[in-house]
Amino acid sequence: MHVAFVIQMARGTDRESLLSEETKRETQAVVMSLEDAAQMGFSASGVEALPGQEVAIIVVAKRDAPWVHRAIESSPVVSGFKQADVNID
To answer: What is the DSSP letter of 18?
Structure first.
């Protein structure tokens, strides 16, 4: 089981800055754009950027979701986010 975080962030923000290199390495989190997610087979229907915002998606193993949750919750570039459980085969 994995968790997907759908993040609203300021337009022009580098989505790679959402998580530190240590967090990405330790959790093996995958940070991507909506376009990247679609190419990997994720359905992002109904997900749209708010005016002046961009959307980033982070997928991580459920056991590491609290770590990633804390990181994005404290990020100054995040204006909001949702999370959902996802199954990856």
So the answer is: G
For the chain, give every domain's residue range.
Answer: 2-86
Is-above-0.85 flag for pTM? yes
CATH for 2-86? 3.30.70.1150
pLDDT tens digits, residue range 27-86?
999 999 888 888 887 766 677 878 889 999 999 999 999 999 999 999 999 999 999 888
Q: Please, what sign has the CA dihedral across residues 66, 69, 74, 75? A: positive
Alpha-helical (H) ranges within the chain are: 21-27, 34-39, 65-73
Neighbour count for residue 57 (Cβ, 10 Å): 22
DSSP state of 82: E
The tokens of 23 are what? 């967090």
